[in-house]
Design a protein that fits this description.
- The radius of gyration is 19 Å and the shape is globular.
- It has 13 helices and two strands, in the order H-H-H-H-H-H-H-H-H-H-H-H-H-E-E.
- The chain has a two-stranded antiparallel ribbon with strand order 1-2.
- With 301 residues, it is an all-alpha fold.
Length: 301
């Protein structure tokens, strides 16, 4: 990875880490669905100009059904579930549970998309799930006022991401990245338009909430999508996937600095276990035959 790509990776992880902060501040006043409508509506308006050619517009029309499905499972459902979760859970905690996305991607890929899982990856999957248990064991309270259902909402979001990753890979991998980003964002905005307006808050929304909602749309959605797909093209999928491990660190740091969230030993321990398991499951760390963990070989070796 070049130094420019490394800087883009750090910026991307910071922007996606900040998204949990923006949601936590804005969602109490907007509500989950109206906030996601703002996020995807503005994101679509800013991304659609990238499609101003007959070739891209033709691709959008030809694949409108698949892009609609992608928009629902990659944006509408997970963003709404995460926004709901942040009404109760801390931003850093939410981001750590969300970091299990590669686990669901691997499990769903093996179950429904004929993607094989190697033996060592099963260890990573088990370790990551144990890390989630360490994080949330004392918070799995499903009574009224408990955190249990909000944690389930985050896991539901990661399930959607895992489904979307496999769906995109098998059905839409031939499309240009700008078509995927702008097309799925526009479809998401259309799906959210009616429910978002029906659920629009009846009370005036503060400037602080509006500022965080706009930052979520412009920085953590539009700019982040452009950085992500650019990084994917220049650095490759393996290098880009390391953003999974940087986002929770970023969110925990921003939560500590901006929202005075605490960093307990339980959270740090759960983070280390979860991210280590995810690294093994995604094969960013591998075992040699003698049992040592090593980084994956470059493609040319």
């Amino acid at each position: 990875m070049s130094s420019a790509d490394a800087l883009r990776l750090l910026l991307l992880s910071s922007l996606w880490g900040l998204s949990f902060i923006f949601m936590r501040v804005a969602v109490p006043e907007f509500g989950p669905v109206p906030l996601v409508l703002i996020r995807m509506g503005i994101g679509a308006l800013l991304l659609v100009p990238l499609l101003m050619s007959l070739r891209y517009l033709r691709l959008i029309w030809q694949h409108k059904g698949a892009l609609l499905i992608l928009g629902i499972i990659n944006h509408v459902l997970p963003f709404s579930l995460l926004a709901l979760a942040t009404t109760r859970l801390e931003a850093g905690f939410t981001s750590l549970i969300n970091a299990t996305t590669p686990i669901f991607t691997a499990l769903l890929g093996a179950a429904f998309f004929a993607t094989p899982i190697q033996r060592q990856q099963y260890l990573g999957l088990a370790l990551a799930l144990f890390g989630v248990y360490v994080l949330s064991a004392d918070r799995l309270d499903f009574t009224l006022g408990g955190d249990g259902w909000f944690i389930v909402a985050v896991l539901g979001a990661t399930f959607c991401y895992g489904l979307a990753g496999n769906y995109s890979k098998t059905r839409l991998s031939h499309l240009p990245s700008r078509v995927l980003a702008a097309g799925s964002s526009a479809m998401s905005a259309l799906v959210l338009l009616v429910p978002g307006l029906l659920l629009w808050p009846s009370e005036p929304v503060s400037m602080l909430a509006w500022g965080n909602a706009l930052a979520l749309a412009m920085l953590s959605t539009t700019l982040a999508f452009l950085l992500y797909f650019g990084l994917l093209a220049s650095a490759g999928a393996t290098a880009t996937s390391t953003v999974t491990f940087l986002i929770p660190v970023s969110a925990l740091l921003w939560g500590y600095l901006l929202l005075n969230e605490t960093l307990s030993l339980q959270v740090v321990t759960g983070m280390v276990i979860t991210l280590a398991g995810t690294a093994i499951a995604t094969r960013l760390l591998r075992f040699r035959s003698r049992g040592a963990l090593t980084p994956p070989r470059p493609p040319h070796e």
